[in-house]
Amino acid sequence: MRLSRYFLPVSKETPADAQIVSHQLMLRGGLVRQTAAGIYAWLPLGHRVLRKIEQIVREEQDRAGAIEMLMPTIQAADYWRATGRYDAYGPEMLRIVDRQDRELLYGPTNEDMLTAIFQHSAKSYRDLPRILYHIQWKFRDEIRPRFGVMRGREFLMKDAYSFDLDEAGARVSYNRMFVAYLRTFARMGLRAIPMQADTGPIGGDLSHEFIILAPSGESEVFFHKSWETLRSAEDYAVDAEDSTALQAFVDSMTADYAATDEKRDEAREAALGDDLRQSRGIEVGHIFYFGDKYSKPLGFSVSGPDGSPVTPLGGSYGIGVSRLVGALIEANHDEAGIIWPDAVAPFKVALVNMRADDGSVTSAADEIYGRLSDAGVETLYDDRDERGGAKFATADLIGLPWQLIVGPRGLANGVVELKRRATGEREEVSIESALARLTA
Amino acid sequence: MRLSRYFLPVSKETPADAQIVSHQLMLRGGLVRQTAAGIYAWLPLGHRVLRKIEQIVREEQDRAGAIEMLMPTIQAADYWRATGRYDAYGPEMLRIVDRQDRELLYGPTNEDMLTAIFQHSAKSYRDLPRILYHIQWKFRDEIRPRFGVMRGREFLMKDAYSFDLDEAGARVSYNRMFVAYLRTFARMGLRAIPMQADTGPIGGDLSHEFIILAPSGESEVFFHKSWETLRSAEDYAVDAEDSTALQAFVDSMTADYAATDEKRDEAREAALGDDLRQSRGIEVGHIFYFGDKYSKPLGFSVSGPDGSPVTPLGGSYGIGVSRLVGALIEANHDEAGIIWPDAVAPFKVALVNMRADDGSVTSAADEIYGRLSDAGVETLYDDRDERGGAKFATADLIGLPWQLIVGPRGLANGVVELKRRATGEREEVSIESALARLTA
């Protein structure tokens, strides 16, 4: 993409109303623009990150055997009446009346609707187990939306719902999602710690939050120092079809102490001594097992193998997709701007033409751009007629993993400069060797 | 995907309230489920089609130089007040009041918001031209939602917005979208005819609807018989960077008569004589040039090359992504069910195991499934313990382009049956040759 034809409204000023660094950098870097309190338009660069994150989430859901579908944003109030949640949910639910005076709402979550949809078709034990998910915009009418996309009102969530015939099966579904979550966050380069959590309005008796560490986090968390190690998705390779291996793995992942403020265990903390760590954390995922909480009020049962009715047991599993954009920046930035992990970077390379007014520099940069594009390398080509300093500042601010700088002095010696954003490391290399590195 | 683990609630009964064939087949084929009047959940099979269509739309927008972003579904009423459309829009706009008594609405379209967003950052002639687009859910509170996803209330639309410095430039943007639309629909196997159209509430003086022919269409259309030829995307290959070639191409595409009911020209029709055709049509896309209709009330100007202010001229360009699912079925079905064009089929192959209770048939079918999956062929594997007749009926109903049938008699002779859904042609071929055909 040529920057001269792109829409990347970067800004030097730090917006006064943005309290945390991810919010500041998302506004300054032209990733989002606020359009109402707690509601954001995703500008082209931010949209690309959102889609990268969404795709990683999708791949890991699919890998865990969950099936993608898509529920609407607007729900009939009746779904919530049937489960008794309509009145209970409170003012965070955006309630709507249509032109025919029917009561609707903008879905904040989908347990009620999805259980009803699944109930309509699932009649036999052979229709279970199933995990269904969708990635859809939700709305929660927060009284004080803040921290940009981290606590917005309209937000993108992946929510999955499992249906099983018995508790053992429901535990397998839960464990599959548990592992999928560890893998999902690890693939984004995040260290997400599973912590026992309260179940809140979703209900149920088993729940984990997945929390990443950041000074701006909304809650205080306590954990064994073993969680300081950054793990990769390969460390979470376990066969989702093998329920015994799955349980053993989840047990090993929950053996070391990790708890949110509400779930602290003073005895365990005391026993840990120097191995105890404390930090602030950001919740990026939350999984729940709630049994028959939704199937029972809806009268949902299927015929079991012996013909007798069985009430399916359920769980739900959420990942804050749009929130992750902010969380990733909280975890990956420096004074100059964002440092995108490779897996979620909006483009891989910032190609900087230092002298757009110099024909030979421009023709060299154009050729490099063409070759990177042909090789399928996502490249943002700064071909604008601007000074080098402004271009460097923009490249650092938007944080693409690589910067490839083409200038007259280098070209005279047959070299370009390759900079790794994360480390700041710069190298002068030949054009061929830069291309080989970036297309590898 | 193994059907025994999928969520595909097909039904034999034709739903009483579904008047047109696409609506009937989408319900019967388990593609969607209605969750409120004019609002649908996209079940896994329907969701896959929706994403295929969305991706073709996206690729052709990108090819035309449009830049993807994503605006929220909920808009502040102020955007619409600023352009004077808030009161004018009428009861189809879903108006919402939040907990702080702020007036919001569920966006039915985005001219007002996007012009404001773009205005905020575009200050110079160098920031133009631009075409920005998003693919986002919209809501129009239809008084009588009907025809399933064809005239639903919550619907997925691709809407693009162009900004140019002068009329000649605006015409180039318009032409680019014109060609992108022809290509988009042709890639889906649709014959979409561009017709001069009224501009309605969007405003402006130049507009084309893209209409496909179907007996269930909402409007009567009239056209030269030349449009009976089905064209492919290759027939619409024109360099989007060459404005002269672009205009000549658009002129050639609008030379032959084609008009909706409101835009009929009796003199031209009379001159056509036997070459005139009449049909009912479904609108799948609509493009508008509206000049300064939105930039003027917003006071949007940029500094021109000589420093003097220039008011950008705009157009907007919509494709009904969710509506296309219905339109495609209207254009592609028979008595037995849907016949998906290859480009939008949810899976390429329906692999039918005729005897799931027979170990050797199942192991052959399992192996074929594994090899198709390894080759990246999207396969829905009917591994359920059901009779062959029910499996054939399901396969025909959901309309995947190919059916590969594995049964005991064939296997004894070393063959499987390969059926092309569109033609009904069946062939007995060896497993290897079937695999070679499907992976080619």
UniProtKB/TrEMBL annotation, chains A, B:
NCBIfam families xref list: PRK12325.1, proS_fam_II
Catalytic activity: tRNA(Pro) + L-proline + ATP = L-prolyl-tRNA(Pro) + AMP + diphosphate
Location within or outside the cell: Cytoplasm
PROSITE patterns: AA_TRNA_LIGASE_II (PS50862)
Pfam families: HGTP_anticodon, tRNA-synt_2b
Entry protein name: Proline--tRNA ligase
Quaternary structure and partners: Homodimer.
Keyword Repressor: no
Protein keywords: Aminoacyl-tRNA synthetase, ATP-binding, Cytoplasm, Ligase, Nucleotide-binding, Protein biosynthesis
Organism superkingdom: Bacteria
Family the UniProt entry places it in: Belongs to the class-II aminoacyl-tRNA synthetase family. ProS type 2 subfamily.
EC number(s) from the headed UniProt entry: 6.1.1.15
SUPFAM superfamilies assigned: Class II aaRS ABD-related, Class II aaRS and biotin synthetases
InterPro entries: aa-tRNA-synt_IIb (IPR002314), aa-tRNA-synth_II (IPR006195), aa-tRNA-synth_II/BPL/LPL (IPR045864), Anticodon-bd (IPR004154), Anticodon-bd_dom_sf (IPR036621), Pro-tRNA-ligase_IIa (IPR002316), Pro-tRNA-synth_IIa_bac-type (IPR004500), Pro-tRNA_synthetase (IPR050062)
HAMAP family: Pro_tRNA_synth_type2 (MF_01570)
